[in-house]
Specification:
Elements lengths: L9 H18 L5 H51 L1
Length: 84
């Protein structure tokens, strides 16, 4: 696995640490700066795959909702016809 070394100014590290602190507070996490950067780089790497997966899941949910609605409408039609 490749290893990388980066240098950050104290000012940049402090600004990033503030973001880490906000993210940790919002997510109940306890990442340090290095772990936070690694996570975000990995998220960048999977962004395209994630977008595709979300679109596929959205389509599946839409299709399922459409099928459920059609079934419910048929059931309601039958109920209403029976009431006549």
């Amino acid at each position: 696995m490749p290893e990388f070394t980066i240098e950050l100014s104290d000012k940049a590290a402090a600004k990033l640490q503030a973001e880490v602190n906000r993210a940790n507070a919002a997510n109940g996490a306890s990442l340090d700066l290095l772990a936070w950067m690694e996570l975000h780089l990995k998220e960048i790497a999977i962004a395209g795959d994630m977008a595709s997966a979300v679109e596929r899941l959205r389509k599946e949910a839409e299709d399922e909702a459409s099928n459920s609605l059609a079934l419910a409408a048929r059931s309601e039609r039958e109920r209403l016809l029976q009431e006549l």
